[in-house]
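Weekly sync notes, structure subgroup
Attendees: PM, AL, DS (notes)

Item 1: joint prediction request from the bench team. They want all two components modeled as one assembly rather than separately. Inputs as received:
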Amino acid sequence: MPVTVKTFTSTHDAAAALSSDRSARYLGGGTLVMRALNEGDISISTVVRASDYAMTRIDASGSRITLGAGVTFARILAERDLAVLHGPARSIGGPAVRNMGTVGGNLFAPVPYGDFTVAMLALDAMVSVQGGLGGREIPIDEFLQSRDRQTGVLVLAISFARPGSTEAFRYRKIARIKPKGGAVITLAAHLPVNGSRIVGARVALGSMAPTPIRARAAERALEGRALDTSTISAAAAAAVEGTSPGDNALASAWYRREIVGVHLRRLLSGQE
Amino acid sequence: MAKTALQFQHNGRDVAIFVDGGTNLLVALRELIGDMTPKFGCGQGGCGTCSVLIDGELHLSCLTLAETVAGRSVETLDGIKDGPNLHPLQRAFADNFAAQCGYCTPGMLMAAKALLDRNPQPSRAEVVEAISGNICRCTGYEPIINAVLAAASGGRARA
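Output from the run, pasted for the record:
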């Protein structure tokens, strides 16, 4: 069924068009919305686009990194200043999907996709959105909890503090097909260290709930402790707490629950 | 519903068509331009057989809104041969038995071309990565990887 395509030069006008029409979807790289249209999704009758340059801007010069919502994974891989994100970006799709898929779209990607958002969640990112009434910044975990209600807002950018050291941020995607494939599970951890103690531990999991989630029990097991064998064991044992994975063709919910602690242990102890 | 006028370069030639809203580039190329080289496989971005180059970058035409290529350059498998002369990649695919049913071949060739355009002497690992978004269900990947490496080492007559 033909849809109406509306292209705006300003994000403000694009946001107004999105918020005023329940059946409108924002088209970023196309990997989600075009797929839905190809599959005959009749809930979409209008496609909204914005050609504003700000949507594709990268600011990685300082301690806070800002990625425009329209930044593709291929562009992240081409930026030396974004080396911390190369692991998550490389784990997504093949070269064509990385040339198309965007940071903003990934926030809406359903299981078993959305790996980059898992990394953003571990980095405590802020999501900058433009609604019908104005702009605001939302913590990413809050954004993800209400994701189903966010289709009427326009995501402008995502920002986060650059990790203090390369060891502080860790990422691991478990897929059956390498190098490309949907995730069995995805894990990301940000473990800033003060002295020898972890302060502000963040552990994020993908494919362990309908949206990426924080593993708060594992974070509590890590907080204020040194990253030694007993801390890692405690965090691994707590990894499954609060998760609600589903079954799909890649893995069953049971399997995901069984392996999440195993892979968190490997991630924290630096094993391959 | 009103159609939208769309102009772009198709294999170096200016073309103008009218598209319905929401039409993807694959449908525009096949049904409106008549270029049958990009294939429909999954319509989900999973198989890669619809791959084309947009301004030199590998894209999936089934997930590309046709209107977004206005004023841009779209290159398909139909454009890589030189008259009756096959492109070195096509010759290498034939010589190395890299095509069986042939359905994945247009996408494989475009993914390989995207790689060799940027990196004329890739490693085996780089070839594997470059075709990682393309699925083949017949010959397996080894003859395809060998063909891309052969085309790279055999020199390339034209870009």
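Discussion: Chain A touches chain B through 27 residues (CB under 8 Å).
Action: AL to compare against the crosslinking data before next sync.
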